[in-house]
Amino acid sequence: MADRIWVLARQEAKRVRNSFLPDDEKGAISLSKLCRYLDIDVQLADLKPGISGFIQKEHPNEQPFIVLNKNEPVLRQRFTLAHELGHYFERKMNNDLEYTFVDSRSSNDYDLHEFYADEFAGELLMPADQIEELRANGRDEIYMAKYFKVTIPAIEKRLERIRLGEEEAASRVTNTPA
Predict the structure, then answer these.
(1) Who's near 154: CB < 8 A, 6+ residues apart?
(2) How far apart are CA 53 and CA 157, in angstroms?
(3) If you write DSSP's letter for every residue of 101-164 in order, what string do you get?
(4) Mind listing the pLDDT tens digit for each residue in 119-132?
(5) How far apart are CA 83 and CA 121, in angstroms?
(6) Mean pLDDT score of the chain
(7) If I label 93, which of 25, 99, 101, 117 is the partner at 20 to 30 A Cα–Cα?
(8) What pTM value is reported for the model?
(9) Angle between helices 152-174 and 141-148 (to 10 degrees)
């Protein structure tokens, strides 16, 4: 199951992006518009160092809300918001009525839910097909980071994750019995 989480997260992010944006729209997605469309309130707050944000749904009949650390750079807040939306869509798929996820920078808390949210955020903000198109046109990481409105480390991590996904897919094809 764990080796398929990234596939599910990417598929859901593609579905969300495609249903929210016109077919021909590329580049940076407006997360604020997406949150308004989903009726998710987003707030900025002074959170503890190491806490980037969280999503919480306290009661089954209420919409969740997302809180972002106001002390972090805007581009980091953007990735955190996409990450928290990943938790939202994962919980929605599982029909969870109440939940809380806190995005801390500690690797000790990294589990499948966090991996799913990261993969969702990566595909939502930096779609693999658009990255491949930019790479084919000779665009570098700096250009891509500006194009998608993400940090350079975020685009570097996304390129690494895409490459790892391609290698895994290739290894499954070459290791499949005839």
Answers:
(1) 75, 79, 122, 125, 126, 145
(2) 20
(3) EEEES-GGG--HHHHHHHHHHHHHHS-HHHHHHHHHTT--HHHHHHHHT--HHHHHHHHHHHHH
(4) 999 999 999 999 99
(5) 5
(6) 85
(7) 25
(8) 0.86
(9) 110
